[in-house]
Amino acid sequence: xxxxxxxxxxxxxxxxxxxxxxxxxxxxxxxxxxxxxxxxxxxxxxxxxxxxxxxxxxxxxxxxxxxxxxxxxxxxxxxxxxxxxxxxxxxxxxxxxxxxxxxxxxxxxxxxxxxxxxxxxxxxxxxxxxxxxxxxxxxxxxxxxxxxxxxxxxxxxxxxxxxxxxxxxxxxxxxxxxxxxxxxxxxxxxxxxxxxxxxxxxxxxxxxxxxxxxxxxxxxxxxxxxxxxxxxxxxxxxxxxxxxxxxxxxxxxxxxxxxxxxxxxxxxxxxxxxxxxxxxxxxxxxxxxxxxxxxxxxxxxxxxxxxxxxxxxxxxxxxxxxxxxxxxxxxxxxxxxxxxxxxxxxxxxxxxxxxxxxxxxxxxxxxxxxxxxxxxxxxxxxxxxxxxxxxxxxxxxxxxxxxxxxxxxxxxxxxxxx
Length: 418
Ligand SMILES: [Fe+2]
Fold this sequence. Notes:
Blueprint lengths: L2 H9 L14 H20 L18 H20 L10 H5 L23 H21 L2 H34 L22 E4 L2 E5 L15 E5 L2 E4 L5 H9 L11 H10 L7 E4 L2 E6 L2 E4 L11 H10 L7 H9 L11 E7 L25 E4 L16 E3 L8 E2 L3 E2 L3
Parallel strand pairs: 8-11
Antiparallel strand pairs: 1-4, 2-3, 4-12, 5-6, 6-7, 8-9, 9-10
Helix pairs in contact: 1-2, 2-5, 2-6, 3-5, 3-6, 8-9
The site of fe (ii) ion has 4 residues, from helix 6.
């Protein structure tokens, strides 16, 4: 995690846990959590010039300025407008500009054109954030106890939502900088996280396990209901797949052998000209990769990152293994036997992103948060170096399209001994 971001994160490592505080202190605890998460967003934006904050390098990535404004709109739309009686919107036009995908919340600007929004500028977005911050803090301080209790779930999801965007701020600016020939550093002092040295396999015997979130503490709706599944027997790699292993896959013609690839994956290899993970560049016979600190030589011992599901799946087939299912991953992670389950790279599983048995999306506009995306995407588990402190959980279900590789995404293998 970059130093600018980590300083704020370190001091508030369990910001959002404040919501389990004793009732008499929940006002102060929630206001403190709110301030801390909002400050982390600004800390992550701080190294970026206003020009950096406008760019949208592809439809999937959003400008920094948009992330800062959209997370603010989320509190305005879902908390302040319904619950703060005297609240006045900062600018009536912002709802159209900064609504992402909430159909129930009204019409919105086209996602691929977010980079065209040069106005409002970064300074005006900062004023928008301050306007909403004042109103939220006032609401938490002065609304009746009953009103505050009713709004806390919205504050809570708004903070977890903002933390998700904090991760995207880093992955999206990295994508933009990777397309800049001078390879700018987001933070010249950024260093990759230290990784565990565990090796070998964790034996998961056949058994029935409960997976999914059981209701204690915050979780997104897609993590429940908790339910029982049969897993194993399977061996899960304790370590993440490394760059050295990926180089062996490349040297063995991994990107040139169609028998290793899903049909859609092979089409992507051809269409995109993939011959290495995302952001890798070969210079004078050596491999370099774009990082948050700029262009750096590939460290063979480091976990591979910026690979798509298609690539992860092809690698696993080449290795004579498979990717684990998300249930297997979760049971293994809860056992504490996995190295770098969290904080390095998200790990692709071979589980399609679908509803758990008995899943019901929340009522109202926030029901659009996760449920409507439950098709055509694959689940990633764990968390990455860009995930804010306090945001990860063993039951967390991240999801992306199988061709996506601008996230910090890697893999660990599963072996069924067949
Ligand atoms: Fe969002």
